[in-house]
Amino acid sequence: MSSITVAKVLNNNVIIAQHPQYAEVVVIGKGIGFNRKTRDRINLSSVEKMFILRNQEEQEQYKQLVPQVEEKLIEVMQEIVLHIMQSSRQPLNEHIHIALTDHISFAIRRNEQNIAIHNPFLYETKEIYPEEYNLAEYAVERINAAMGVKLPPDEVGFVALHIVSALSNRHISEVKQHSLLIGDMVNLVEDNLDYHIPRDSLDYSRLVTHLRFVLERLRRGETVRETSSLDGLMKREYPEMYMLAWKLTKVIEQRVHIPVYAAEVSYLTIHLQRLAQKKEDEEDMELPE
Protein backbone atom coordinates (compact mmCIF):
# COMPACT_ATOMS: atom_id res chain seq x y z
CA MET A 1 0.00 0.00 0.00
CA SER A 2 1.42 3.38 -1.02
CA SER A 3 2.51 5.67 1.80
CA ILE A 4 4.42 8.86 2.48
CA THR A 5 7.13 9.35 5.12
CA VAL A 6 7.15 12.46 7.30
CA ALA A 7 10.34 14.48 6.84
CA LYS A 8 9.32 17.60 8.77
CA VAL A 9 6.18 18.94 10.44
CA LEU A 10 5.58 22.61 9.61
CA ASN A 11 2.38 22.84 11.64
CA ASN A 12 -0.76 20.81 12.40
CA ASN A 13 -1.97 21.15 8.83
CA VAL A 14 1.23 21.09 6.75
CA ILE A 15 4.10 18.62 6.56
CA ILE A 16 7.07 17.95 4.31
CA ALA A 17 7.18 14.29 3.30
CA GLN A 18 8.88 11.78 1.05
CA HIS A 19 6.53 10.49 -1.61
CA PRO A 20 7.22 7.18 -3.44
CA GLN A 21 6.56 8.82 -6.82
CA TYR A 22 7.28 12.53 -6.42
CA ALA A 23 10.23 12.47 -3.92
CA GLU A 24 9.96 15.41 -1.50
CA VAL A 25 6.51 16.97 -1.39
CA VAL A 26 4.57 19.46 0.69
CA VAL A 27 1.38 17.89 2.02
CA ILE A 28 -1.55 20.06 3.14
CA GLY A 29 -4.39 18.45 5.08
CA LYS A 30 -6.52 19.11 8.15
CA GLY A 31 -4.62 17.74 11.15
CA ILE A 32 -2.06 15.99 8.90
CA GLY A 33 0.81 17.11 11.15
CA PHE A 34 -0.88 16.64 14.51
CA ASN A 35 1.24 14.41 16.78
CA ARG A 36 3.41 13.39 13.81
CA LYS A 37 7.14 12.84 14.13
CA THR A 38 9.96 12.57 11.60
CA ARG A 39 10.00 9.19 9.79
CA ASP A 40 6.35 8.46 10.66
CA ARG A 41 4.63 6.72 7.74
CA ILE A 42 1.18 7.75 6.56
CA ASN A 43 -0.86 5.54 4.25
CA LEU A 44 -2.13 7.62 1.34
CA SER A 45 -5.36 5.66 1.26
CA SER A 46 -6.12 6.60 4.87
CA VAL A 47 -5.65 10.33 4.35
CA GLU A 48 -8.67 12.07 2.93
CA LYS A 49 -9.02 15.67 1.80
CA MET A 50 -5.34 16.46 1.45
CA PHE A 51 -3.31 18.22 -1.22
CA ILE A 52 0.19 17.38 -2.38
CA LEU A 53 2.34 20.14 -3.87
CA ARG A 54 4.58 18.39 -6.40
CA ASN A 55 6.17 21.32 -8.22
CA GLN A 56 9.45 22.17 -6.52
CA GLU A 57 9.12 25.90 -7.04
CA GLU A 58 5.61 25.84 -5.57
CA GLN A 59 6.90 23.79 -2.62
CA GLU A 60 9.61 26.31 -1.78
CA GLN A 61 7.20 29.25 -2.03
CA TYR A 62 4.68 27.51 0.22
CA LYS A 63 7.34 26.62 2.81
CA GLN A 64 8.25 30.32 2.99
CA LEU A 65 4.60 31.33 3.27
CA VAL A 66 3.49 28.95 6.04
CA PRO A 67 5.38 30.64 8.93
CA GLN A 68 3.89 34.01 7.93
CA VAL A 69 0.27 32.82 7.94
CA GLU A 70 -2.02 32.07 10.84
CA GLU A 71 -2.52 28.30 11.13
CA LYS A 72 -6.30 28.68 11.26
CA LEU A 73 -6.19 30.37 7.85
CA ILE A 74 -4.22 27.43 6.38
CA GLU A 75 -6.98 25.12 7.56
CA VAL A 76 -9.78 27.34 6.22
CA MET A 77 -8.05 27.75 2.86
CA GLN A 78 -7.80 23.98 2.53
CA GLU A 79 -11.57 23.71 3.07
CA ILE A 80 -12.17 26.41 0.47
CA VAL A 81 -9.90 24.86 -2.16
CA LEU A 82 -11.58 21.49 -1.58
CA HIS A 83 -15.00 23.14 -2.01
CA ILE A 84 -13.87 24.76 -5.27
CA MET A 85 -12.63 21.43 -6.60
CA GLN A 86 -15.80 19.58 -5.65
CA SER A 87 -18.09 22.32 -7.01
CA SER A 88 -16.25 22.86 -10.29
CA ARG A 89 -15.33 19.18 -10.75
CA GLN A 90 -12.14 20.36 -12.42
CA PRO A 91 -8.47 20.06 -11.44
CA LEU A 92 -6.92 23.18 -9.94
CA ASN A 93 -3.46 24.52 -10.59
CA GLU A 94 -1.67 23.89 -7.28
CA HIS A 95 -0.40 27.48 -7.25
CA ILE A 96 -3.79 28.50 -5.82
CA HIS A 97 -2.63 27.26 -2.41
CA ILE A 98 0.12 29.89 -2.42
CA ALA A 99 -1.46 32.73 -4.38
CA LEU A 100 -4.88 32.73 -2.72
CA THR A 101 -3.60 32.06 0.82
CA ASP A 102 -1.06 34.87 0.47
CA HIS A 103 -3.70 37.23 -0.96
CA ILE A 104 -6.22 36.52 1.80
CA SER A 105 -3.60 36.82 4.53
CA PHE A 106 -2.63 40.24 3.20
CA ALA A 107 -6.29 41.24 2.77
CA ILE A 108 -6.96 40.41 6.43
CA ARG A 109 -3.99 42.54 7.53
CA ARG A 110 -5.21 45.43 5.36
CA ASN A 111 -8.67 45.08 6.82
CA GLU A 112 -7.31 45.20 10.37
CA GLN A 113 -5.49 48.43 9.48
CA ASN A 114 -8.62 49.90 7.83
CA ILE A 115 -6.89 50.10 4.45
CA ALA A 116 -9.52 49.71 1.73
CA ILE A 117 -8.54 48.58 -1.77
CA HIS A 118 -11.07 49.35 -4.51
CA ASN A 119 -11.61 46.63 -7.10
CA PRO A 120 -11.82 48.42 -10.49
CA PHE A 121 -13.23 45.39 -12.33
CA LEU A 122 -15.72 43.98 -9.82
CA TYR A 123 -18.75 44.27 -12.12
CA GLU A 124 -16.85 42.86 -15.10
CA THR A 125 -15.62 39.89 -13.06
CA LYS A 126 -19.14 39.10 -11.84
CA GLU A 127 -20.49 39.19 -15.40
CA ILE A 128 -17.62 37.36 -17.09
CA TYR A 129 -17.12 34.63 -14.49
CA PRO A 130 -20.44 34.09 -12.65
CA GLU A 131 -19.68 30.56 -11.41
CA GLU A 132 -16.25 31.52 -10.10
CA TYR A 133 -17.78 34.64 -8.54
CA ASN A 134 -20.29 32.48 -6.63
CA LEU A 135 -17.43 30.28 -5.38
CA ALA A 136 -15.57 33.42 -4.31
CA GLU A 137 -18.62 34.63 -2.37
CA TYR A 138 -18.63 31.33 -0.49
CA ALA A 139 -14.87 31.66 0.16
CA VAL A 140 -15.12 35.20 1.57
CA GLU A 141 -18.13 34.29 3.73
CA ARG A 142 -16.25 31.26 5.09
CA ILE A 143 -13.12 33.34 5.79
CA ASN A 144 -15.13 36.07 7.52
CA ALA A 145 -16.86 33.52 9.75
CA ALA A 146 -13.78 31.44 10.58
CA MET A 147 -11.30 34.28 11.02
CA GLY A 148 -13.65 36.75 12.70
CA VAL A 149 -13.11 39.42 10.07
CA LYS A 150 -15.31 41.32 7.63
CA LEU A 151 -13.61 41.47 4.25
CA PRO A 152 -15.35 43.92 1.88
CA PRO A 153 -17.31 42.89 -1.25
CA ASP A 154 -14.39 44.06 -3.43
CA GLU A 155 -12.46 41.03 -2.18
CA VAL A 156 -15.00 38.66 -3.74
CA GLY A 157 -13.91 39.93 -7.17
CA PHE A 158 -10.22 39.47 -6.39
CA VAL A 159 -10.78 35.94 -5.07
CA ALA A 160 -12.86 35.08 -8.15
CA LEU A 161 -9.94 36.00 -10.41
CA HIS A 162 -7.64 33.69 -8.44
CA ILE A 163 -10.16 30.88 -8.89
CA VAL A 164 -10.40 31.58 -12.63
CA SER A 165 -6.61 31.53 -12.82
CA ALA A 166 -6.39 28.14 -11.06
CA LEU A 167 -9.18 26.55 -13.09
CA SER A 168 -7.93 27.79 -16.45
CA ASN A 169 -4.19 27.34 -15.77
CA ARG A 170 -3.64 30.97 -16.61
CA HIS A 171 -1.53 33.34 -14.58
CA ILE A 172 -3.55 35.71 -12.41
CA SER A 173 -1.99 38.68 -14.22
CA GLU A 174 -3.46 37.49 -17.53
CA VAL A 175 -6.89 37.01 -15.97
CA LYS A 176 -6.75 40.51 -14.45
CA GLN A 177 -5.55 41.92 -17.75
CA HIS A 178 -8.60 40.56 -19.55
CA SER A 179 -11.03 41.86 -16.90
CA LEU A 180 -9.40 45.28 -16.94
CA LEU A 181 -9.41 45.31 -20.75
CA ILE A 182 -13.14 44.58 -20.85
CA GLY A 183 -13.76 47.35 -18.34
CA ASP A 184 -11.76 49.79 -20.45
CA MET A 185 -13.66 48.80 -23.59
CA VAL A 186 -17.02 49.28 -21.85
CA ASN A 187 -15.86 52.76 -20.81
CA LEU A 188 -14.84 53.49 -24.41
CA VAL A 189 -18.28 52.44 -25.63
CA GLU A 190 -19.98 54.63 -23.02
CA ASP A 191 -17.80 57.62 -23.89
CA ASN A 192 -18.50 57.27 -27.61
CA LEU A 193 -22.23 56.79 -27.14
CA ASP A 194 -22.43 59.34 -24.31
CA TYR A 195 -24.55 56.76 -22.54
CA HIS A 196 -24.09 55.04 -19.18
CA ILE A 197 -24.98 51.34 -19.39
CA PRO A 198 -26.61 50.26 -16.10
CA ARG A 199 -24.39 47.61 -14.58
CA ASP A 200 -27.34 45.42 -13.58
CA SER A 201 -28.94 45.58 -17.03
CA LEU A 202 -29.26 42.90 -19.68
CA ASP A 203 -27.58 45.29 -22.14
CA TYR A 204 -24.46 45.42 -19.99
CA SER A 205 -24.46 41.64 -19.54
CA ARG A 206 -24.78 41.07 -23.30
CA LEU A 207 -21.96 43.47 -24.15
CA VAL A 208 -19.55 42.11 -21.54
CA THR A 209 -20.35 38.52 -22.48
CA HIS A 210 -19.67 39.23 -26.14
CA LEU A 211 -16.35 40.94 -25.35
CA ARG A 212 -15.40 38.04 -23.13
CA PHE A 213 -16.09 35.54 -25.90
CA VAL A 214 -13.98 37.60 -28.32
CA LEU A 215 -11.02 37.41 -25.91
CA GLU A 216 -11.59 33.71 -25.24
CA ARG A 217 -11.65 32.94 -28.97
CA LEU A 218 -8.39 34.83 -29.42
CA ARG A 219 -6.79 33.06 -26.46
CA ARG A 220 -7.73 29.65 -27.84
CA GLY A 221 -6.71 30.59 -31.38
CA GLU A 222 -10.20 29.99 -32.77
CA THR A 223 -11.03 31.40 -36.19
CA VAL A 224 -14.25 33.25 -36.93
CA ARG A 225 -15.90 32.54 -40.24
CA GLU A 226 -15.57 35.52 -42.57
CA THR A 227 -18.88 37.02 -43.65
CA SER A 228 -18.12 39.65 -46.29
CA SER A 229 -21.81 40.27 -46.98
CA LEU A 230 -22.49 40.99 -43.29
CA ASP A 231 -19.37 43.16 -43.12
CA GLY A 232 -20.55 45.24 -46.08
CA LEU A 233 -24.04 45.58 -44.62
CA MET A 234 -22.79 46.71 -41.19
CA LYS A 235 -20.38 49.21 -42.71
CA ARG A 236 -23.10 50.64 -44.94
CA GLU A 237 -26.05 50.66 -42.52
CA TYR A 238 -24.32 51.51 -39.23
CA PRO A 239 -21.10 53.36 -40.12
CA GLU A 240 -20.66 55.01 -36.70
CA MET A 241 -21.08 51.77 -34.74
CA TYR A 242 -18.91 49.93 -37.28
CA MET A 243 -16.13 52.48 -36.70
CA LEU A 244 -16.51 52.12 -32.92
CA ALA A 245 -16.32 48.32 -33.23
CA TRP A 246 -13.18 48.72 -35.33
CA LYS A 247 -11.66 50.93 -32.60
CA LEU A 248 -12.44 48.30 -29.98
CA THR A 249 -10.75 45.54 -31.95
CA LYS A 250 -7.67 47.74 -32.35
CA VAL A 251 -7.58 48.23 -28.57
CA ILE A 252 -7.72 44.45 -28.16
CA GLU A 253 -4.89 43.93 -30.64
CA GLN A 254 -2.70 46.50 -28.87
CA ARG A 255 -3.32 45.01 -25.43
CA VAL A 256 -3.17 41.26 -26.10
CA HIS A 257 -0.88 41.38 -29.16
CA ILE A 258 -3.06 39.02 -31.20
CA PRO A 259 -4.65 40.02 -34.54
CA VAL A 260 -8.46 40.17 -34.48
CA TYR A 261 -10.42 38.68 -37.38
CA ALA A 262 -12.42 41.19 -39.45
CA ALA A 263 -15.62 39.22 -38.83
CA GLU A 264 -15.41 40.15 -35.14
CA VAL A 265 -15.96 43.80 -36.13
CA SER A 266 -19.24 42.94 -37.83
CA TYR A 267 -20.60 40.91 -34.92
CA LEU A 268 -19.54 43.58 -32.43
CA THR A 269 -21.27 46.24 -34.55
CA ILE A 270 -24.58 44.42 -34.09
CA HIS A 271 -24.24 44.62 -30.28
CA LEU A 272 -23.22 48.27 -30.39
CA GLN A 273 -26.11 49.19 -32.67
CA ARG A 274 -28.51 47.61 -30.20
CA LEU A 275 -27.07 49.83 -27.46
CA ALA A 276 -27.23 52.92 -29.68
CA GLN A 277 -30.89 52.15 -30.45
CA LYS A 278 -31.61 51.68 -26.73
CA LYS A 279 -30.13 55.10 -26.02
CA GLU A 280 -32.25 56.71 -28.76
CA ASP A 281 -35.40 55.05 -27.45
CA GLU A 282 -34.75 56.31 -23.93
CA GLU A 283 -34.08 59.84 -25.17
CA ASP A 284 -37.33 59.80 -27.19
CA MET A 285 -39.24 58.77 -24.08
CA GLU A 286 -37.78 61.71 -22.16
CA LEU A 287 -38.82 64.31 -24.75
CA PRO A 288 -41.84 66.39 -23.71
CA GLU A 289 -44.95 65.86 -25.78
Describe the structure.
Residues 68-173, 174-282 form the PRD domain. By secondary structure, the protein is of the alpha+beta class. 62% of the residues lie in helices and 10% in strands. The chain has eleven helices and five strands. It has a five-stranded antiparallel β-sheet, with helices on one face. A hairpin with a 2-residue loop joins β1 and β2. α8 runs antiparallel to α11 (262-286). The chain is elongated and about 75 Å long. The model has no long low-confidence stretch (mean pLDDT 85).
State the helical fraction. 55-70%
Strand content: 5-15%
Largest sheet: 5 strands, antiparallel
Query: Order of strands across the widest beta sheet?
Result: 4-1-2-3-5
- What is the succession of H and E elements? EEEEEHHHHHHHHHHH
The 3D shape can be described as: elongated
Report Rg: 24 Å
Poorly predicted ranges: none
Tally of strands: 5
Structural class: alpha+beta
- Output the number of helix runs: 11
Mean pLDDT: 85
Question: How far is the N terminus from the C terminus?
Answer: 84 Å
List keywords for this structure.
289 residues; alpha+beta; 5-stranded antiparallel beta sheet; 5 strands; 62% helix; elongated
Structure at a glance:
The protein is an alpha+beta fold. It is built from eleven helices and five strands; from the N terminus they run βββββααααααααααα. The chain has a five-stranded antiparallel sheet, covered by helices on one side.
Outline the secondary-structure elements.
Blueprint: E1 3-11, E2 14-19, E3 23-29, E4 41-43, E5 50-53, H1 56-65, H2 71-88, H3 96-112, H4 122-128, H5 130-147, H6 154-168, H7 172-193, H8 202-220, H9 228-237, H10 239-256, H11 262-286
Antiparallel strand pairs: 1-2, 1-4, 2-3, 3-5
